[in-house]
Amino acid sequence: MVLGADGLHSRTRALLFGPEEQFYRYLGYCFAVFTMRNTFGLTRETAGREVPGMLAALREADGLFFDGAGQIRMPRWSSGRAALVGDTASAPSFLTGQGTSLALVGACPLAGSPAGRDRTAGFAAYEHCSRAFVALNQAQAGHGGATLVPTTARALEQRNTMLRGLATRPATEGRPAHSALTRPDFAQRPEHDYC
């Protein structure tokens, strides 16, 4: 078997399922990450007066990572002897804060699903166990984008207040997306039942 876990821009996925463009959903944001010296003594978000210095540091940075915020949405996560997991199969985007969680949650049923089954049934069981949790978390990207990248002065003020710990986000009904899946108790389940 081949298990693809090589991320958002997966070569394994492209080889098995075709070009990324058919699965990639752009969320309307781009981001850049680079390392710079903490010459400002920053310990939290600061005022816009620091932006020119940060842009100057960007021009001198040794390394730069630039990408768009996006998700991977696929109709199926396996083909023949291969299956995909984590961002390779279902990237939620960094706006949700759930990428690592989805990878770990998916790896658990994927590891157990072939037990006592043929490969096709095992991969189908893995997807059956994980699909609803993935969809719920992918749906959170809009909320994350609105929170992290506000478009009005009022939304910016609310975000900053929340980030400083002076306020919390309103509670949602039911279980929050990040905890909407109950991990199976493998000791209590038959060897072939991992969902």
Please state roughly what percent of the residues sit in beta strands, choosing from under 5%, 5-15%, 15-25%, 25-35%, 35-45% or over 45%: 5-15%
* Gap from first CA to last CA: 21 Å
Count the E strands.
5
What is the overall shape? elongated
Largest sheet descriptor: 3 strands, mixed
**Structural class by SSE content:** alpha+beta
The count of domains is 1
Please name the CATH topology. Answer: FAD/NAD(P)-binding domain
| Annotated CATH architecture | 3-Layer(bba) Sandwich
InterPro entries: FAD/NAD-bd_sf, FAD_aromatic-hydroxylase
Biased composition (Basic and acidic residues): 186-195
Region (Disordered): 167-195
Organism: Streptomyces paromomycinus (Streptomyces rimosus subsp. paromomycinus)
Task: Give a short summary of the structure.
The chain is of the alpha+beta class and 195 residues long. The protein contains 7 helices and 5 strands; from the N terminus they run E-H-E-H-E-E-E-H-H-H-H-H. The radius of gyration is 20 Å and the shape is elongated.
Report on the structure:
- It comes from Streptomyces paromomycinus (Streptomyces rimosus subsp. paromomycinus).
- InterPro entries: FAD/NAD-bd_sf, FAD_aromatic-hydroxylase.
- The chain is of the alpha+beta class.
- The chain has a single domain, classed as FAD/NAD(P)-binding domain (3-Layer(bba) Sandwich).
- 38% of the residues lie in helices and 13% in strands.
- It contains 7 helices and 5 strands; from the N terminus they run βαβαβββααααα.
- The strands form 2 sheets. Strands 1-5-4 form a 3-stranded mixed β-sheet, with helices on both faces. A two-stranded antiparallel sheet has the order 2-3.
- Strand 4 and strand 5 form a beta hairpin.
- The mean pLDDT is 81.
